[in-house]
Specification:
Mean pLDDT: 80
CATH architecture of the largest domain: 3-Layer(aba) Sandwich
Structural class: alpha+beta
Radius of gyration: 37 Å
Number of domains: 5
Number of helices: 13
Low-confidence stretches: 634-642, 680-692
CATH superfamily of the largest domain: Class I glutamine amidotransferase (GATase) domain
Strand content: 25-35%
CATH topology of the largest domain: Rossmann fold
Length: about 700
C-alpha cells in the first residue's frame, strides 16, 4: 500500500465538525401532561435510550464519511507486480492484425486471437509507470501507425479497440521498423518493443535496435484450419453451357485425411439458394476440385463456402466471385531488332486466357509501330492497354510522339532488352523506364533469383518456378524512380525486375526470348508475365482476380478523375479522392468484392476488385521467431512494482456511509419504516404513539 498525496489526509481533521455538532445538539422530549406519570416516565426512558443509540450511529457514520473522503483524496494505491520497471519508459506495441489473427481461440464466445491481443495490450498500458510513453503499430500489410507516441493512456485504449482483422498478409518486419522510428524520437532512455502475434509467419525479421519481447497470444501447438487458396472461373461458350471452376483448397493442423463440404450460393438472391453442394476429402492437406454448374439467370455474383467440423479461421472459408464476362485486355508486343523475340510471351498469354482474364495479344514490328498505333487508336478509340517492347530499338520521331501519347492516355509499358541493343537505343528508351540499363554483365555460373518483400505481387507463397534459371548475361539496372519496386534480384544484388506501380512501367534485365537465358521456358515465366501485365494494365480494365489487402497499394487513374466512389462487400459506400500517384487502396481489408465507380473525360467506368486472405495465412502453425542477435527481454526478468489506484473504492464507501446516515435520520418520517421497525407488544406500541 502507498499514498500518492499524503497532505490530503489533513482533511481528516474535519472530523471535529460532526463531533461538535453532536455535543451541541440538544435532544430532549417535549413535556406531556398525562394521568399515568409512572407509565410515562418508563416510556420517556426507553425513548431517550433509543435516541441516544441512533445519535451515536449517526456520529460514527458522519465521521466515516469525512475520513473515507479524506483517504480517497490522498490517492492511495496498492503495490502490485508489473512486467516493466518502476521508472517511466517508452513502449511501442506491435499488434499482428493479419488474416491469421482472426482465428478463434474461444468458439463459444467467438473470441479471436486479435481480441486476446488487444485485451492484453490494454492491461499492459494500464500497468505502465506514470509518465511512460506508448506507440501502437498494426503489423498487417501494409503496416500502419495506429497511434503515434503519446503519454495519453486513454488514447491508447481507443486506438487498440479500433483494430479489426482483415484479409491482410503479415508484415511484422516492416512494422517493427516503424516501431523503431517511433521510439527513436522518445525522450526517455528506457525503450522497448512488445510484439503480440500468433506467430504464424515465416517472415524474416531484421535485428531491432531496442529490446523486443515476442508474446504469443494463443496456446502452443498447431491450430487446425482449412481454406480456399485459389479459384479459377471460366465463363461458358454458349448460353446452355455450364460454368467451369477450378478450386484449390489447403488445410493444416489436421490428420492425413479431412472430410469437408463445399457449397456454392447465389449472392444476389435474398434467400441465397444453393447452386451446388459437394462433399470432398483433403489428402495430406490439399485438394483440387474441378466443378461445373448452371447458375440461375440474373445473378451477378456467387459465394463459395467450405465447411469442416473443426476450423479455427472462418475468414478463408468463404470467397465471393463475380459472374460476368472476363474483360479483354489488349497487349501489344513490339519486336525490336530480332524477329520472333516475343513468341514465348504471346504463347504464355494465350495459354492464360479463358480463366479469370482474357488477353488479346497483338504483334507489330518496330518499323510499323507509328502507323499501327494510329490505326488502332482511330478504330478502338483508345490505345492498347499494355505495350511490351521485346528488344531495344532506336525509335523514330514518329514512334516517340505516338508512344508519348499512348503512355499519357494510360497504357502500361514493359521493356525487355536484347544483347544486341545499341547504346543509343538503350538511352532512347531510358526516358520512359523506372530503371536505366547501363551495361551488359556476364552472369555467374549458377545464378539464383532472390525474392524481395514485394515479390508477393507476382508470386504466391511457395516455389516461384524460377529456381533453376540459367542466365548467360543480363543488363545491369539502376533504378531511377523513388517509387520503383524490385521484387526479384540476381544473386541478391542486381535487380532482375524493376516495377513502378505509380506510372505502371517495368523493365527486365533479360529478354523475353531464349538468347540471354532460359527464362521464357521456366515454369515461373507464365505466372510472372501474367501478373506483371495485369499490374501494368489501366485500372478500368483490371479483371476481378483476387488480391490480398496491401498488395494493391495505389491504383493509377487518369488525370481527369477527381473522385472515386467505392462500395465495400458489406454494402458501405464512401468516396475517395486520388492522390498524385493514384488512388490509395491499402486499407481495403474486408474480404469480398469492391466496386469502384468513377468518370473521366470519356465515359463512366466501373472497376471491380476481389480481396481475399493471402494463401500463406491459412497455415496457422507457429513459425515466427526473433533473430538470435536481437536484444530480447523476458517477462520473468522484468518483474517489478506498479500501482493500482484505490481512490474510487474509498469514495464509494464514503458515499455508502452518507446514504446510511441519511436513512437513519429520515426513517421515522415514513410510516412504512415505522411498521417495519415495530417489534414490541401492543402496550409499547400504544406508548410509541403517545410519545411520537
Amino acid at each position: 500500500m502507498g499514498i500518492a498525496s499524503p497532505l490530503a489526509l489533513l482533511a481528516a481533521l474535519l472530523i471535529a465538525l460532526p463531533i461538535a455538532a453532536h455535543i451541541l445538539r440538544r435532544r430532549d422530549l417535549p413535556s406531556r401532561i398525562l394521568p399515568t406519570v409512572a407509565f410515562l416516565e418508563r416510556a420517556i426512558t426507553h425513548k431517550r435510550r433509543r435516541i441516544r443509540l441512533v445519535d451515536i450511529l449517526i456520529l460514527i457514520l458522519r465521521m466515516g464519511v469525512v475520513i473515507l473522503a479524506a483517504i480517497g483524496m490522498a490517492e492511495p494505491f496498492m503495490v502490485g507486480a508489473s512486467r516493466y520497471g518502476e521508472e517511466a519508459l517508452a513502449l511501442a506495441i506491435v499488434i499482428d492484425d493479419s488474416a491469421s489473427m482472426a482465428q478463434l481461440i474461444d468458439f463459444s464466445q467467438k473470441r479471436s486471437a486479435l481480441d486476446e491481443a488487444v485485451a492484453r495490450a490494454i492491461k499492459i498500458i494500464e500497468s505502465l509507470p506514470q509518465g511512460s510513453e506508448i506507440a501502437i503499430v498494426a503489423a498487417g500489410a501494409p503496416p500502419r501507425l495506429i497511434l503515434p507516441r503519446t503519454k495519453d493512456i486513454k488514447l491508447g485504449k481507443g486506438a487498440l479497440l479500433s483494430i479489426q482483422p482483415g484479409a491482410r498478409r503479415n508484415a511484422i518486419g516492416a512494422a517493427i521498423k516503424m516501431a523503431e522510428r517511433q521510439l527513436g524520437g522518445a525522450s526517455l532512455s528506457e525503450r522497448r518493443i512488445l510484439l503480440l502475434s500468433d506467430q504464424s509467419s515465416d517472415e524474416s525479421i531484421p535485428t531491432p535496435s531496442f529490446p523486443v519481447e515476442l508474446e504469443k497470444v494463443i496456446g502452443s501447438g498447431y491450430s487446425p484450419n482449412i481454406g480456399i487458396v485459389e479459384t479459377q472461373l471460366v465463363s461458358p461458350d454458349s448460353p446452355n453451357s455450364p460454368w467451369l471452376m477450378t478450386l484449390d483448397v489447403r488445410g493444416s493442423g489436421f490428420s492425413s485425411q479431412v472430410k469437408a463440404s463445399l457449397r456454392i450460393l447465389s449472392e444476389d438472391l435474398p434467400s441465397h439458394p444453393t447452386i451446388l453442394e459437394k462433399e470432398f476429402t483433403l489428402l495430406d492437406g490439399s485438394s483440387s476440385l474441378h466443378l461445373s454448374f448452371h447458375p440461375p439467370k440474373g445473378i451477378r455474383k456467387i459465394a463459395i463456402n467450405i465447411e469442416t467440423p473443426e476450423d479455427r479461421l472462418p475468414m478463408d472459408n468463404r470467397r465471393v466471385l463475380p459472374l460476368e464476362a472476363s474483360p479483354q485486355l489488349s497487349v501489344l508486343f513490339v519486336e525490336g531488332s530480332t524477329r520472333r523475340s516475343a513468341r514465348f510471351a504471346i504463347r504464355a498469354l494465350e495459354a492464360a486466357s479463358g480463366s479469370a482474364h482474357t488477353f488479346l495479344p497483338l504483334l507489330v514490328d518496330a518499323d510499323r509501330l507509328p502507323s499501327f498505333l494510329a490505326d488502332y487508336r482511330s478504330r478502338e478509340n483508345s490505345f492498347p492497354q499494355v505495350i511490351v517492347v521485346s528488344g531495344f530499338f532506336a525509335p523514330s520521331p514518329e514512334s516517340i510522339s505516338v508512344l508519348e501519347q499512348a503512355l499519357e492516355e494510360g497504357s502500361g509499358l514493359l521493356v525487355a532488352p536484347e544483347a544486341s541493343a545499341s547504346r543509343d537505343a538503350v538511352e532512347a528508351w531510358a526516358r520512359w523506364l523506372p530503371a536505366r540499363p547501363v551495361a551488359l554483365l556476364p552472369a555467374p555460373s549458377h545464378p539464383s533469383l532472390t525474392l524481395e518483400p514485394t515479390s508477393h505481387l507476382f508470386f504466391r507463397s511457395g516455389p516461384t518456378g524460377l529456381e533453376g534459371i540459367r542466365i548467360s548475361s543480363y543488363f545491369e539496372l539502376v533504378p531511377l524512380s523513388d517509387s520503383a519496386l524490385i521484387p526479384l534480384r540476381i544473386d541478391g544484388d542486381h535487380p532482375f525486375l524493376v516495377f513502378d506501380p505509380s506510372s505502371r512501367r517495368a523493365v527486365l534485365s533479360v529478354g523475353l526470348d531464349d538468347r540471354l537465358s532460359d527464362f521464357p521456358i521456366q515454369p515461373g515465366f507464365l505466372p510472372l508475365l501474367v501478373n506483371l501485365v495485369l499490374k501494368l494494365a489501366p485500372p478500368e480494365v483490371l479483371p476481378a482476380h483476387p488480391i490480398s489487402s496491401g498488395d494493391l497499394i495505389t491504383l493509377p487513374l487518369p488525370a481527369t478523375v477527381k473522385n472515386v466512389e467505392i462500395q465495400t462487400p458489406s454494402g458501405l459506400v464512401f468516396e475517395r479522392n486520388p492522390g498524385p500517384s493514384g488512388l490509395d487502396l491499402s486499407d481495403l481489408a474486408e474480404p469480398g468484392i469492391y466496386e469502384l465507380r468513377f468518370a473521366d473525360s470519356k465515359k463512366k467506368r466501373i472497376g471491380r476488385l476481389v480481396v481475399v486472405p493471402p494463401p500463406e495465412e491459412i497455415d496457422l502453425s507457429p513459425r515466427l521467431s526473433l533473430p538470435r542477435s536481437a536484444p530480447t527481454t523476458s517477462k520473468a526478468s522484468n518483474q517489478s512494482t506498479t500501482s493500482l489506484p484505490l481512490s474510487p473504492l474509498f469514495f464509494f464507501l464514503s458515499g455508502l456511509f452518507a446514504i446510511a446516515e441519511g436513512w437513519l435520520r429520515l426513517r421515522d418520517a415514513f410510516p412504512l419504516f415505522q411498521k417495519m421497525l415495530r417489534r414490541r407488544p401492543h402496550a409499547k406500541s400504544i406508548t410509541s404513539k403517545v410519545l411520537g
